[in-house]
């Protein structure tokens, strides 16, 4: 049986339903990210797990125990907030010790546990500092130690990296993942940053308008998006309008190109419109490139972006972005030039709404 | 540009003259009790007056009770409004502003009508009851200043997130309020306390009409019967107010230093 189970969760604020029949099972020790744009309901689900909001309908259980009737302070959950939320009147030691003191632990146990937590986040030398004397990254690490100190059964992370600068964000997310793996704590991470979610999660829940559009591993979410929303939200994707050429042969027409798809086009008839998608990094312009499929078009423009060169190619009215790695001797395709993009048929995704 | 600057300095000078000349005059007059020489005789006379000591001590005690009970009312109210009832904020702000709009004499007559010795709640039936009513009336008078100073201090901290952070760590309401919120709004609490102290020390209407031996009515009594002592008392009253304001500035500066990043 799964450790954290959310069954048919619904939440309405007045007339507005922000979470619509949300179902999810999370295993013990798993790191799950809720990914989605602002207002998709991801934070509301997290707040319902924490007990800050009550579900309008549905049940939340942890280790088989229903949490709906429990207050926040009875759930034994740790949480890290976007705004750090360290107590300004307490130093680092007292902040980390707060949950243990509230639980009435003996002083010797509190001292040992706080020291252990501060060593874990490598801030044991800053135990006497106050929050205002620390950087944002340090404060968030203290917030993580404070959340972990009482040994919670679930750790909730509510966009903990959003307020930090880019470099700190990357190093801290790696640190969070490493600590989570080390402790084996079940973790739910809320973010709107796809790179964050893809880089540290065991599984990702892509949320859209109060529902989970897709639940899967980072690879599944990126390579096999289940809906048009997931395809457009995660990574950059070329959406191509095509028409079914021959349903029996599983081929579609893009401009003047006829291409065979690996994925079945289903019950569509010849001439029906179909949306297919292609990642910019799939394929190559090199004639020696491997690939069972190709599309020929005209270069519209080329951009030098440092590590990659992005070229836009017009194929039957569709502008397809294509990325290739930069090399010192790379020649940028020129506007107006006719080029052939080679790739595998399996790179095409059929996008269903 | 230069003309406007000169005009600004002129306005400031007028303001200073308007404020300081009477004050200097009062101070100078308070030193003239002994004929021909300046002396602190008037101050000596005031400080040696038993009634001064009694009324000053009484008002100090009333101020202390006002601050303690006022804060016990205001801090949880401001906290609750900010956390759970933000839509009630305009209503609470309006109520706390009422004492500035309704004259003290109207409020005290209302109290006497409601809480007289033959009413359901006969506060004025005993000395302790009347003292209690006086403290309650002082809380009412200082409500606009107390509420605003505490509310402003709460605006500076993220009350909601701090509450949630404490709650998820297992804390209950008393712990959250007294260990996580109260210490972080202490600058506001102290600011409100000093203003309240200054108000209570000089208040006349409530104490006089409730017939309590406070410092305000004593000031009026001395003013009506003596020559030099009223000036000395006015300077003492100013000194008390300025001392309170000085402490207020000090607290504000310390809280600013504490909240600013290095």
Brief descriptors of the model:
heterodimer, A: alpha+beta, Rossmann fold, OB fold (Dihydrolipoamide Acetyltransferase, E2P), 2 domains, B: 262 residues, mainly alpha, MetI-like fold, 0% strand
Written description of the protein model:
The complex is a heterodimer of chains A (353) and B (262). Chain A has 353 residues and is α+β, with helices and mostly antiparallel strands. Chain A contains eight helices and 19 strands. Chain A has a six-stranded mixed sheet with strand order 6-7-8-3-9-10, sandwiched between helices. Chain A has a five-stranded antiparallel sheet with strand order 13-12-11-14-19, with no helix packed on it. A four-stranded antiparallel sheet of chain A has the order 2-1-4-5, with helices on one face. Chain B is mainly α. Chain B has a single domain, classed as MetI-like fold. In chain B, helix 2 crosses helix 12. The interface between A and B is medium-sized, with 28 and 23 residues.
Question: Would you spell out the secondary-structure blueprint of this structure?
Answer:
The complex is a heterodimer of chains A (about 350) and B (about 260).
Chain A: E1 4-13, E2 16-26, E3 31-35, H1 42-50, E4 57-62, E5 65-66, E6 77-80, H2 92-102, H3 107-120, H4 136-148, E7 154-158, H5 166-183, E8 186-191, H6 194-200, E9 203-208, E10 211-216, H7 218-223, H8 228-233, E11 238-246, E12 251-254, E13 257-260, E14 273-278, E15 293-304, E16 308-315, E17 318-325, E18 338-343, E19 349-350
Parallel strand pairs in A: 3-8, 3-9, 6-7, 7-8
Antiparallel strand pairs in A: 1-2, 1-4, 4-5, 9-10, 11-12, 11-14, 12-13, 14-19, 15-16, 15-18, 16-17
Helix pairs in contact in A: 2-3, 2-4, 3-4
Chain B: H1 2-30, H2 41-48, H3 50-83, H4 89-101, H5 104-114, H6 127-156, H7 159-168, H8 173-181, H9 186-202, H10 205-209, H11 215-225, H12 229-259
Helix pairs in contact in B: 1-12, 2-12, 3-6, 3-9, 4-6, 6-9, 7-8, 9-12, 11-12
């Amino acid at each position: 049986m799964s450790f954290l189970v959310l069954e048919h969760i619904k939440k309405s604020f007045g007339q507005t339903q922000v979470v619509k029949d949300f179902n999810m099972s999370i295993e013990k020790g798993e790191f799950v990210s809720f990914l989605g744009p602002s207002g998709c309901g991801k934070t509301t689900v997290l707040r319902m797990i924490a007990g800050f909001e009550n579900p309008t309908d549905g049940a939340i259980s942890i280790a088989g125990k229903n949490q709906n009737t429990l207050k926040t302070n009875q759930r034994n959950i740790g949480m890290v907030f976007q705004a750090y939320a360290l107590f300004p009147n307490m130093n680092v030691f007292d902040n980390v010790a707060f949950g243990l003191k509230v639980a009435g632990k003996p002083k010797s146990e509190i001292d040992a546990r706080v020291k252990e937590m501060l060593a874990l986040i490598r801030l044991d030398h800053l135990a006497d500092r106050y929050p205002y004397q620390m950087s944002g990254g340090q404060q968030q690490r203290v917030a993580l130690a404070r959340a972990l100190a009482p040994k919670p059964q679930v750790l909730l992370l509510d966009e903990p990296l959003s307020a930090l600068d880019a470099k700190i964000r990357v190093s801290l997310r790696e640190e969070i993942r490493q600590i989570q793996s080390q402790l084996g704590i079940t973790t739910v991470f809320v973010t709107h940053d796809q790179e964050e979610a893809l880089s540290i999660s065991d599984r990702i829940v892509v949320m859209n308008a109060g529902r989970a559009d897709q639940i899967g591993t980072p690879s599944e979410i990126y390579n096999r998006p289940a809906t048009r929303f997931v395809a457009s939200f995660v990574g950059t994707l070329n959406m191509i309008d095509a028409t079914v050429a021959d349903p029996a042969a599983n081929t579609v027409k893009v401009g003047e190109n006829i291409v065979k798809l690996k994925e079945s086009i289903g019950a569509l008839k010849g001439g029906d419109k179909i949306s297919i998608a292609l990642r910019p990094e799939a394929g190559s312009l090199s004639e020696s490139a491997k690939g069972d499929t190709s599309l020929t078009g005209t270069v519209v423009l080329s951009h030098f972006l440092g590590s990659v060169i992005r070229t836009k190619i017009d194929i039957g009215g569709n502008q397809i972005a294509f990325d290739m790695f930069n090399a010192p001797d790379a020649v940028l395709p020129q506007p107006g030039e006719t080029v052939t993009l080679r790739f595998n048929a399996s790179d095409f995704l059929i996008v269903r709404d | 540009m230069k003309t406007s600057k000169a005009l600004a300095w002129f306005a400031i000078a007028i303001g200073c003259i308007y404020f300081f000349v009477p004050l200097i005059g009062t101070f100078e007059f308070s030193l003239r009790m002994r004929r021909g020489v300046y002396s602190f005789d008037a101050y000596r006379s005031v400080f040696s007056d038993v009634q001064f000591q009694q009324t000053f001590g009484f008002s100090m005690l009333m101020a202390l009770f006002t601050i303690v009970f006022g804060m016990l009312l205001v801090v949880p109210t401001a906290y609750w409004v900010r956390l759970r009832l933000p839509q009630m904020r305009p209503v609470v702000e309006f109520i706390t502003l009422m004492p500035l709009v309704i004259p003290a004499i109207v409020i005290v007559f209302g109290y006497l009508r409601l809480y007289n010795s033959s009413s359901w709640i006969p506060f004025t039936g005993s000395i302790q009851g009347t003292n209690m009513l006086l403290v309650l009336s002082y809380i009412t008078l200082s409500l606009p200043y107390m509420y605003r100073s505490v509310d402003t201090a709460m605006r500076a901290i993220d009350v909601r997130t701090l509450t949630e952070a404490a709650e998820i760590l297992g804390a209950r309401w008393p712990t959250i309020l007294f260990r996580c919120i109260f210490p972080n709004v202490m600058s506001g609490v102290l600011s409100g306390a000093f203003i309240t102290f200054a108000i209570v020390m000089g208040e006349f209407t409530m104490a006089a009409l409730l017939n309590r031996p406070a410092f305000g009515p004593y000031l009026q009594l001395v003013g009506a019967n003596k020559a030099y002592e009223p000036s000395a008392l006015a300077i003492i009253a100013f000194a008390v107010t300025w001392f309170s304001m000085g402490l207020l500035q000090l607290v504000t500066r310390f809280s600013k230093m504490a909240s600013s990043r290095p």
